[in-house]
Design a protein that fits this description.
- The protein is α+β, with helices and mostly antiparallel strands.
- 26% of the residues lie in helices and 36% in strands.
- It has five helices and six strands; from the N terminus they run βαβαβββααβα.
- Strands 2-5-4-3-1-6 form a six-stranded mixed beta sheet.
- A hairpin with a 5-residue loop joins β3 and β4 (57-70).
- It is globular and about 40 Å long.
- The two termini are 13 Å apart.
- It binds a DNA duplex through loops.
Length: 137
DNA sequence: GCCAACGTTGGC
DNA sequence: GCCAACGTTGGC
């Protein structure tokens, strides 16, 4: 089991919309490092759903429901997408500021590479954030 | 193949 | 709205 974090601007695609849709194709990723993570995702892996720009907090958990396949929105056919479905919301959203305050999380990709939109999360980071979110799987 | 210019992301 | 970080583009 691997853990991940995906970002979305709520004004573009929010967690509420994601839940209302019952899942979505995670398309439009055009960064090779992010794409590498997409390709490493396995069916059943879990991913934090982070609201960037507005909110700046982790609001829920998504499950990978389909592994990487070609993203039809990429005309060159280079990039891939996965399918995600809602798993469960965080009982308490975990904000970026709170994450920055935790020494254990200072190496998390979210802080070290702020512009990356899809990134791995270590098991330790995952458990720490789950606890901060007052949420059990 | 280097590197300057430019565009985009996202926190503040 | 500004700006830092960083990926991409294009001239040489």
């Amino acid at each position: 089991m691997q853990y991940w974090l995906v970002k979305s601007e709520p004004s573009v695609y929010s967690w509420d919309q994601f839940v209302a849709d019952g899942g979505t194709h995670w398309n439009g990723v055009r960064n090779h490092q992010a794409a590498k993570s997409l390709k490493t995702m396995r069916h059943g892996d879990l991913a934090f759903f982070y609201h960037s720009n507005e909110g700046k907090e982790i609001v829920g958990i998504a499950k990978i429901s389909r592994e990487a396949y070609p993203d039809p929105s990429d005309a060159k056919g280079v990039f891939v997408m996965v399918d995600l479905e809602p798993f469960k919301p965080l009982k308490t959203p975990v904000g970026l500021a709170a994450i920055k305050d935790v020494p254990n999380l200072k190496d998390i990709c979210l802080i070290r590479q702020p512009r990356l939109s899809v990134m791995p999360v270590s098991e330790k980071e995952w458990q720490t954030i789950l606890k901060m979110g007052d949420t059990k799987l």
